[in-house]
């Protein structure tokens, strides 16, 4: 054994389907199988893991952002979701009162050039002839607004009327009977006879997770409304991100964030793809768009700027997936792709350009004069096989390298089996498969060429019957797969699970790592599995070998790492089989006297059934449980 001056805490993380195991380093299994895990902590058996190996992939899918991470409470705040025409459907807005006392319609009357639809509300009753509480409109948000007692909500709306107005702006229960916060918007005709932005803060005197916003009046006349927003004040770092969902992300310590999709970037048709220029600048002026792959409208409050801000707030490297002129159903010909290429170059100027550049000045005006640290661009999503992909890709690639040679370019083509036929710094690799297949893909990159671009496993998950809505079984297979990525991290640069978020009211994709409604959130087992890897990026990988005479699917990985509190060796073991195993742990190359048992811990992710899932009612059915490492001195010391 070589000696070391540092003292190490041992962190043993166990992910098992076969539930029972005893304390410390021995855990017991049904068939009395035994295995010895040998961890070599000596200097010769060490490999450096890249600092950005594990991150997250945020896609606007399942209302992940709109009605999710983006804390805006009003759904369809600009009345454009029903189409950019008038008349249009104003869903989910509806009326308070009935058609005898109020009429609402849409018209192309807004002061905002890119989103002309505004709401016209005509009130026929006056004073005591109106129903008590008045008449008007309400918005239920995204399946109910979460209003919490004592919290403050910022209301901003745009209004116009030829006469003076007196409008009650209230947060109420879903039927309007419980008033949680209210204020009167009173303005003279001279103020509102042209479009005017008005606003104030509302403080809630009660709580209700299924609330709505009401705009009501008892004054006869016509009022136009547009761009109505309600944001909680206490968003993460004041940047508009829902705090409880951000906490879930912060716990993962993501080293990068890929955004904003996925298929969301492509669109079913190009006309519905994510176009970043329409998502920056003042929120009121953004047109919003219908994401036709996942079939919902987004006001694009969570736009390109906010994604860059999100990355910065998480301390994660932004990975910007740019639309490359290709959607699911149509493609721009290479002969006419140059405006799209310019759009990408402009996006980099927006992120990194000086405040006196055309696009950098817009970023600066949005409150971020310093450049964002954008170093990665992915050219498209899952488009490799498409007719125009390669020709378009090359135009993007050379334009990018010419203007920004330091930016790392990510190709959609898989280079894991055969080398790419085009230049790239990284290539995208996606895998959605069964538990047994992903488990066996533990070896996936072992035979990949050690030369050329590195792999970015930007989407991985167990799906189908093994996964259900998010099972322990899926998490175990994924952990085994990640062990393989750590071992091959000389050529695998980054990896992220997909999808990250789902609002439970629009779960179009199963499973998802983090599931929420207006007020609650839980992590699927696959989310908790990722917490076993939060210290891997930048750590030192140690050599591990299982000595066993059985075929039970057992895999392990070990790392050493340090933080300001000390030095650690983390050993992780996955047993996805049905059999219990007595596993003996042997660590070589580490001076036993350097091990500090008091700070050492065991963490177990398990449950009584492999198919167990978490839910809003049982958020921690399958969640890590941490205990002290030993209650007695382990045998190996
Ligand atoms: O993660 C869900 C979808 O799966 C992504 O949008 C797409 O890239 C993949 O097909």
Search tags:
eight-stranded parallel beta sheet, about 625 residues, TIM Barrel, disordered C terminus, Jelly Rolls, nine-stranded mixed beta sheet, binds alpha-L-arabinofuranose, Immunoglobulin-like, alpha/beta, 3 domains
Question: Can you characterise this structure?
Answer:
With 637 residues, this protein is of the alpha/beta class. The chain folds into three domains: 108 residues, Sandwich (Immunoglobulin-like), CATH 2.60.40; 318 residues, Glycosidases (TIM Barrel, Alpha-Beta Barrel); 139 residues, Galactose-binding domain-like (Jelly Rolls, Sandwich), CATH 2.60.120.260. 15% of the residues lie in helices and 32% in strands. The protein is built from ten helices and 33 strands. Strands 1, 2, 3, 28, 29, 30, 31, 32 and 33 form a nine-stranded mixed sheet that branches. The chain has an eight-stranded parallel sheet with strand order 4-16-19-20-21-22-23-24. Strands 5, 8, 9, 11, 12 and 14 form a six-stranded antiparallel sheet that branches. Strand 29 and strand 30 form a beta hairpin. Helix 5 runs parallel beside helix 7 and helix 9 runs parallel beside helix 10. The protein starts with 7 loop residues before the first strand and ends in a 9-residue tail after the last strand. The C terminus is likely disordered. It is found in: Secreted, Extracellular space, Extracellular matrix. Belongs to the glycosyl hydrolase 51 family.
